[in-house]
Structures are given as structure tokens and as C-alpha cells.
Amino acid sequence: MSAGLRPVSGDAAELVPLLRDWLDGGEPLWVRTSGSTGRPKDVVLSPRAVRASAEATHARLGGAGQWLLAVPPTGVAGLQVLVRSLLAGLEPVASLDGYTADRRYASLVPTQLHRLLLAGEAGPWADLDAVLVGGGPIRPSLVERAAEAGLNVVRTYGMSETCGGCVYDGFPLDGVRMKVEDGQILLAGDVLFDGYVGRPREGEWFATNDRGEITGGELRVLGRMDDIVVSGGVNVPLPAVAAALAEADGVADALCVGIPDEEWGTQVVALVVPGEAVRPDAVRVERLRDAVEDGGLPRSWAPRRVELVDALPMLPNGKPDRLAAQAVFTR
User: Fold this and answer.
1) What average pLDDT does this structure show over 236-264?
2) Mean pLDDT, residues 307-318 taken together
3) Between 226 and 84, residue with greater pLDDT
4) Could you tell me if residue 318 is left (phi over 0), alpha (psi between -120 and 50 degrees) or otherwise beta?
5) Cα(52)–Cα(188) distance, integer angstroms
6) Whole-angstrom distance, CA of residue 166 vs CA of residue 153
């Protein structure tokens, strides 16, 4: 497939000249969503919205800078890495030793940060002015470990429909508004998309698929609206269970999903990545169920089946592949 902007396709070298011209006033481009629910969509983004997002990011971080491309350039996070560098008059870099500017930034997904820390390779990243981390749930312990390694991690929340991250460390970027209605996060502002291909956006506010709460002006994201499953008549928030499992002894990472079940309606199951040199009995299902309860959650939320894997299934953009995880238990 040749490089293009409808949808965004190609590598960084091909996209940079296209985006340089596009930012001067091109027609809206399309970013194809990850399809983590099985329904990918083409999100329509205008140069005005993308530029507003990039400029608000630099304003929040303390100034324009050069960006490392560590995520696919065809997704909104990678697209913004290219755009932010271009607006700063710089070329994006492909490695930590490629920077030429004084201010240096990068954007990662939580899995990348987790693997950097696990491999003991986070040291050089401490020289960056900021490392944005978003695109999925970020455990507090992961941020703490990164801080201990000297990284300036900025937690971001957003999606393709908001030109990427639009809430940093719980607070909206300039020009962005947020509210929560009936537990659902709604966003508005200059960074919003024009709509989906063939379906223009309606109204001032975009209703996300995420649950949250706002306290003292700070947004706390509680998970996806569809990340709550009903199992045996009990509402189970899957991200909370996965977080409890990931903190258990002998566990390096975890992902919880729900699968259809005649007895429970939906059965909670988990993929678990064991830590290094872990005894098999340390990650048996009953021990993990105990860990959920020990973490302060109801035992009724704990997974009833667990599969050990070498790594969690991921989409190309670094987000967990929930459909692939469900297939492990239903094939």
C-alpha cells in the first residue's frame, strides 16, 4: 500500500513530507482505529484540530521539542509525534541517540514502559524532558517504578477522536473541556474530530466509551464502559481485577476479559504473564483468586480460569487485544 492520508498509511519517512504540506491547510485526514472491539472506524481529523492538540501539548510540557517515534506512525499517537516535531521545525527521531534539539520528548504505551523497566533499560530515558504514556490503563505502581528510575512520566488520556491525549495527569489541556454524566466521560474542545467517514459528528460533546469521576477538577479514568461484565449477577470491573493480579507475587502482567458462560452468564478469565523464575504453583488459579481478595476486592470478582502466557496479545498500536485474549479461552 502506498503512503497516504486517507487513511493514514506508510512509514515515517513517507508521511513527514505529506504532513508538512497537509498542516498548511489540507483536507481532513483519516485515522483508522485499532478495532480492539472488532469494529475499526476511520476517524476524520482536520489540520486545525491536530494542530490545536500538538500546540496544547507543547504548552503543557513547557515548550516545543523533538520527538522520538516509538509507536506506529499510522495511529494517532504516532501521527502526533510526527506533527509535533514538524511544528517545532524538527525531524522526528528513531532512536535515543538521534536527538539534535535541547528539548526531548517521547510517547509510549504502558506495555512499552513496563518492558523497559523489566529489562533494566530505562536509564537513558531519564534524560528526556517528558515521556508521555497513554493508550491504555496505567497502574500507579508502574508510574512509581518509572519515577524511581528517573523518568518524567506524564499520564495521558485520549483517543483518536480527540487527536490523541487531551487530558494530562488528570487535567485537560488548554482548549479542552471534560465532564462526567452517569459515570461516562464526555469531552469537548478544539481537538475534537469532525466525525467518522460517512457519519459527521453531531453536537458539542463527544461521549467516550470510558467511565470516570472528577474530583477537584482532576479526572480519574475507571475503565471502559464495556469493561464491566455481569458474572453471576455481580458487576465486575475487569481493569480493577487485572490490576490486582498484576500486583500479586509471581505475576509480571495480567489481562482480564469476559467470555460467555451458561452458569455465570459471563465468566471472568485472565491471561497471566509469570515473572522470571516463578514456581508454577505461585500462579495457580486459587492462589490468584486469593491475591484478588488480598488486594481488597470481592472474591466474587476473581477469575475462574487462568492461562499462563509468555506475553499478552497486543494490537499493532500496543493496546491489549481483547478479542485474541477471549479466543484463548473459547477456541
Assistant:
1) 90
2) 86
3) 84
4) left
5) 13
6) 15
DSSP 8-state secondary structure symbol assigned to residue 80: H
Q: Which of 330, 224, 331 is nearest to 267 (CA)?
A: 330
Reply yes or no on whether the pLDDT at 35 is more than 90.
Answer: no
CATH 3.30.750.24 applies to domain 232-330: no
Task: Please report the pLDDT score of residue 51 as a whole number.
Answer: 98
Distance CA 153, CA 144 (A): 9
Neighbours of 297 (CB within 10 A): 18
CATH of domain 4-224: 3.40.50.12780
From the list 179, 199, 177, the residue with the least C-alpha distance to 189 is 177
Q: Are strands 164-168 and 153-159 parallel, antiparallel or unpaired?
A: antiparallel
The total number of residues shown for the chain amounts to 331
Domain boundaries, the chain: 4-224, 232-330
Tell me how far the alpha carbon of residue 197 is from its chain's centroid: 23
Alpha helices (H) along the chain: 12-22, 47-61, 76-87, 110-118, 140-148, 238-246, 285-294, 322-330
Sequence-distant (6+) residues with CB within 8 A of 101 are 65, 66, 88, 90
Which candidate, 67, 73, 76, 77, places its Cα nearest to that of 99? 67
pTM for this predicted structure? 0.82
Q: Is 23 exposed, middle or buried (0-12, 13-18, 19+ CB in 10 A)?
A: middle
Cα 280 from chain centre: 31
